[in-house]
């Protein structure tokens, strides 16, 4: 089996899902990450606080991995440790925003604190699900509304152009908080207006119709599988947790119908999601039921994380049978990736199993719930106790940050960097 590149979210200065670094940086044209521009090397790993999931430096993904871990545990009936929930709630800034990691939560957030919509959106989804944090959720939603762009969407970092991934994460957060995303407008535009503007329509190549781009590049949209999976959820108003789709439930998956001379895309979010799912199915079928990625100059390799996202997107669209094929691939090929990537990866797999009606405690011979639990504080309780934790589940955790992402950030921090997204911000070349 080919080596699979780890994938995980990074915060504010790196791609939330590690994309092929050179291609992404060139295509996005992002500004240099502040953390890399100001220093020649990453800061030393801080002493990890009690309650934090993962064993490595949380500088770029602390809130993200914590939120997914807590949300996944709650979804499968595990009652998270109080220390884990307290740590997450304590990361919130006074204005309601979250950043990746605050080493000293007693020190207020200042103008230099890199607030982030993806981290905030993830925290909202987790805290809303856990309950008892209404005030924190309300403040976070208020901050998200305050940084909404005039096109109705969001970027990872406030003030930057909207992107499909960040907009989708915020839509999921609004829905989790009990808000109707369509009613949250700026400049007369809703989040769905911004999101659907990223979809490739009838004027695109036939095999790219229905796909979403992360952002326009020089006014053009490029099909991006990860942005497509994120947008398929966002267009349906879904967050990270998707109600289980039965294995036999399979609404037809079909590409957009284009009449002669038609151009542009649909204005119907549900139709947009259907087109996105059709693109994902075609990509999965063409690549052996996984989505591909490749480092610049390296051979193409399976992208496990993006494949997980595609499975959840298909389940959300009631394409349960279609989701089973890539799910079976994940059951065979995701164990090493999860061990290397840490708590966020285990959480993603747990949520994918939940969305497809699979058993996360018996996933390809692995107990994902036990492995996830082992990366953080001992749970307070569980409706269905798991078996012994996966071997090395915690020891192999790298905090969700692939080694090559840090290397590339150091190499290119002076000139180009990465905007984070709700998913890997990868443009398929």
Automatic annotation (TrEMBL):
Keyword Transcription: no
Cleaved signal peptide residues: 1-37
InterPro entries: Terpenoid_cyclase/PrenylTrfase (IPR008930)
Entry's transmembrane regions: 401-420
Record bears the keyword Cell membrane: no
Segments of this protein annotated with the region Disordered: 374-396
Keywords, in A-Z order: Membrane, Signal, Transmembrane, Transmembrane helix
Compositionally biased tracts (Low complexity): 374-388
Protein name: Squalene cyclase C-terminal domain-containing protein
């Amino acid at each position: 089996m080919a080596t699979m590149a780890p994938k995980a979210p990074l915060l504010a200065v790196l791609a939330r899902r590690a994309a092929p670094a050179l291609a992404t940086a060139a295509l996005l044209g992002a500004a240099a990450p502040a953390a890399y521009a100001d220093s020649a090397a990453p800061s030393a790993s801080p002493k990890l606080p009690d309650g934090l999931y993962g064993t490595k430096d949380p500088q770029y993904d602390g809130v993200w991995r914590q939120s997914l871990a807590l949300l996944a545990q709650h979804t499968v009936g595990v009652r998270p440790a109080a220390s884990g929930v307290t740590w997450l709630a304590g990361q919130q800034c006074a204005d309601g925003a979250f950043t990746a990691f605050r080493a000293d939560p007693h020190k207020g957030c200042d103008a230099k604190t890199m607030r982030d919509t993806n981290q905030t959106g993830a925290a909202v989804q987790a805290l809303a699900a856990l309950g008892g944090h209404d005030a924190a959720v309300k403040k976070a939603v208020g901050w998200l509304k305050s940084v909404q762009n005039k096109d109705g969407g969001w970027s990872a970092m406030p003030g930057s152009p909207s992107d499909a991934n960040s907009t989708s994460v915020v839509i999921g957060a609004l829905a989790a908080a009990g808000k109707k995303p369509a009613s949250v407008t700026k400049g007369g535009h809703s989040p769905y207006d911004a999101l659907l503007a990223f979809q490739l329509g009838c004027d695109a190549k036939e095999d790219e119709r229905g796909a979403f781009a992360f952002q326009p590049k020089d006014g053009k949209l490029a099909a991006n599988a990860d942005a497509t999976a994120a947008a398929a959820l966002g267009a349906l108003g879904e967050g990270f947790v998707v109600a289980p789709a039965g294995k036999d439930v399979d609404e037809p998956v079909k590409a957009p119908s284009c009449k002669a001379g038609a151009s542009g895309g649909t204005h119907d979010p549900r139709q947009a999601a259907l087109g996105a799912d059709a693109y994902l199915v075609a990509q999965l079928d063409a690549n052996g039921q996984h989505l591909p990625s490749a480092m610049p100059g390296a051979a193409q390799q399976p992208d496990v994380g993006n494949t997980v996202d595609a499975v959840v997107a298909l389940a959300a669209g009631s394409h349960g049978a279609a989701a089973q094929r890539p799910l079976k691939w994940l059951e065979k090929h995701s164990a090493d990736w999860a061990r290397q990537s840490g708590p966020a990866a285990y959480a993603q797999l747990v949520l994918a199993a939940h969305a497809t009606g699979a058993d996360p405690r018996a996933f390809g011979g692995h107990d994902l719930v036990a492995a996830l639990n082992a990366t953080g504080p001992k749970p307070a309780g569980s409706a269905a106790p798991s078996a012994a934790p996966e071997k090395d589940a915690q020891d192999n955790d790298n905090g969700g940050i692939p080694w090559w992402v840090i290397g590339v950030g150091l190499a290119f921090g002076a000139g180009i960097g990465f905007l984070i997204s709700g998913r890997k911000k990868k443009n398929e070349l």
